[in-house]
Specification:
The complex is a heterodimer of chains A (488) and B (86). Chain A is mostly helical and 488 residues long. Chain A has two domains: 244 residues, Cytochrome Bc1 Complex, Chain C (Up-down Bundle), CATH 1.20.810; 154 residues, no CATH class. The model of chain B has no long low-confidence stretch (mean pLDDT 87). Chain B has one domain. The chains are: A mainly alpha (488), B mainly alpha (86). At the A-B interface, helix 9 of A face helix 2 of B.
Chain lengths: 488, 86
């Protein structure tokens, strides 16, 4: 390159920079510790969303959203369009990945307390984005108009009737309209390709703005690397690396497990098939199949699921203070582990028992047992590992530690059996209210309450026994006794 | 350093080969869907490895030649599996 052309290039670059502000540091740099895939779990669903946008836009060229043509047009994409089946497969698997990664992102943020001050609103926006992602799954599932997708969507839409009449008629009008299946499919299609992408993009903009304002959450450990890395080119290249690996994984999974189009929807076929939702709604499906939630109990189940979602959205306002480090949050970490365990158990259980009504006793045993096992393991692990790390190398305290470990395990068992007892007595109480009193439910209710009472007494006894070695409880009681005496 | 340069050249070559095969596929053939996915995956993985190497070398860090070599071999195997897919 000659000196003259170099000067011209420099002048052009300077001209562009002055007008467009290319060298202006628009985005804040990223701390060096954030060059880690766990810090970008939220970026990967965006990559999945982009892939879905591209594959979905191509499929839109051929898809016809009407009950008579939806299946045939999907079949046309499969059989006639170049790489059509591949497009459908990639679209489906990236949707699955988007949902899974969004869930992983939520749970990771929960465990590292990324929802705490000042990122409360980011969490709330992220949760709404999660619901929108589930909305994509729900609306997209119907579009191929297969017997599986239509039957499962009918079950989902049928739940609208369990809402209070005023809300039910409004939601029903908004979701399925008054024109039957044709209107329903068209609305699902419109929501899937226009409304939800627009809402998700708007929410993404808000979340990225807040990420820019607050920055990436700090690590919870004591070591904090203050080195900063520019967003361009280093972080951008890192994100492209992650995106390339994610894309390659999606392509290879699509190549190995190509999608097979199920049979088309006909009322005759639908009457023979057992409706079952896609895997990400299986846990809700399994809750709805528990015997007490059948028929008149459905609003109760829907209320319970809604309550879980509301609690998740409001988490930053519930889990506010204290340390962000996991070792200092045993209760919330244990709850988080139980939540993941229950979701997995419910989903797998739902997959294995399609259409079967689950007796309440079985549900309490399985769900309570899961909570018990995870609770005991988590509490024991916390006490053993976190307790040990506080006093490294202290062999003198080992006996005391083992005693304390035994006490903790006993407490964990008492709390878990107590939780089972609460579950049993509550479920039998609900059963009595909804279906009237029968011998078995009354006995279950009494047994549940008795177990709970025994567990309360046992916990008090354990408190008394542990106090004999530490004396802390006695000290506190003496303190309050002194205050009471001084009042007299 | 020389080893790294050789490996990076190998990766770029692999990327070129997979891209060439990608464009030579018969899109009307159902089997070519799988081949297309494999070649595009090789392309993306090569890009990821080159980008990783660039980032590490720019930061003055060493790349483990053993892992890079293993990764490259894995990509060659993947490329061949695409070529000989029935």
């Amino acid at each position: 390159m000659t000196k003259e052309s170099h000067t011209k290039t420099s002048r052009l670059a300077k001209w562009l920079d002055t007008r467009l502000g290319l060298s202006y540091p628009l985005l804040r740099p990223v701390p060096a510790y954030a060059i880690n895939p766990f810090y970008w779990l939220g970026a990967l669903p965006v990559v999945a969303f982009l892939i879905q946008g591209i594959t979905g836009a191509i499929m839109m060229l051929y898809y016809v959203p009407s009950p008579n043509a939806a299946y045939t047009s999907t079949q046309y994409i499969f059989d006639r369009v170049y790489y059509g089946r591949f497009l459908e497969t990639v679209h489906l698997y990236t949707a699955y990945a988007m949902i899974m990664l969004a869930f992983m992102h939520m749970m990771r943020d929960y465990f590292v307390s990324a929802h705490k001050k000042p990122r409360e609103v980011m969490w709330v926006v992220g949760m709404i984005m999660g619901f929108v992602t589930l909305g994509f799954g729900f609306t997209g599932y119907l579009l191929p108009w297969t017997v599986v997708s239509k039957s499962a969507t009918d079950v989902g839409v049928g739940m609208i009737d369990a809402l209070p009449p005023q809300i039910s008629s409004l939601v029903s009008f908004l979701v399925i309209g008054a024109g039957g299946e044709a209107t329903e499919l068209l609305r699902f299609y419109d929501v899937h390709v226009v409304v939800l992408p627009a809402v998700l993009l708007a929410l993404l903009t808000i979340k990225l703005y807040m990420l820019e304002v607050h920055g990436i959450s700090e690590p919870t450990g004591s070591k904090k690397d203050t080195k900063q890395i520019a967003i361009f080119p280093d972080v951008t290249i890192y994100l492209m690396e992650l995106a390339a690996m994610f894309g390659a994984a999606m392509l290879l999974i699509s190549a190995v497990f190509p999608l097979v189009l199920p049979a088309p929807y006909t009322p005759a076929l639908a009457s023979q098939s057992i409706p079952q939702p896609d895997w990400y709604f299986l846990w809700v499906y399994q809750i709805l199949k528990i015997s007490v939630f059948e028929g008149p109990g459905l609003p109760l189940a829907l209320g319970m699921v809604t309550l879980i979602f509301i609690l998740l959205v409001l988490l930053p306002f519930i889990d506010r203070g204290g340390s962000r480090a996991m070792p200092q949050r045993p209760i919330f970490v244990t709850f988080g582990l139980i939540f993941i365990g229950e979701i997995i158990v419910l989903a797998v259980w739902g997959l294995l028992t399609p259409g079967q009504i689950i007796p309440i006793g079985q549900a309490v045993l399985v769900l309570g047992g899961t909570a018990l096992v995870i609770g005991v393991i988590s509490v024991t692990a916390f006490h053993f590992f976190v307790g040990r790390s506080k006093h490294p190398g202290s062999s003198k305290n080992m006996t005391a530690k083992l005693n304390a470990l035994g006490t903790t395990a006993a407490f964990a068992i008492i709390v878990s059996v107590g939780a089972l007892a609460i579950g049993t007595s509550l479920s039998s109480f609900v059963h009595i209210i909804l279906n009237g009193a029968d011998f078995i439910s009354v006995v279950t209710f009494v047994l549940g309450l008795s177990t709970l009472a025994i567990m309360i007494v046992a916990s008090l006894f354990l408190l008394y026994m542990s106090d004999r070695t530490t004396g802390r409880l006695r000290m506190r009681i003496t303190f309050f006794e002194r205050i009471a005496r001084s009042w007299k | 350093m020389e080893m790294n340069k050789s490996l990076l050249s190998l990766l770029v070559c692999l990327q070129l080969i997979s891209t060439t095969f990608l464009w030579s596929l018969d899109a009307s053939d159902v089997v070519s869907e799988v081949k297309f996915a494999i070649f595009l995956a090789v392309d993306l993985l090569c890009f990821a490895m080159v980008a990783y190497s660039y980032r590490k070398l720019k930061g003055g860090l060493l790349i483990s030649p053993r892992w890079m070599l293993l990764g490259s071999l894995g990509l060659v195997v993947l490329l061949f599996s695409g070529l000989f897919f029935p």
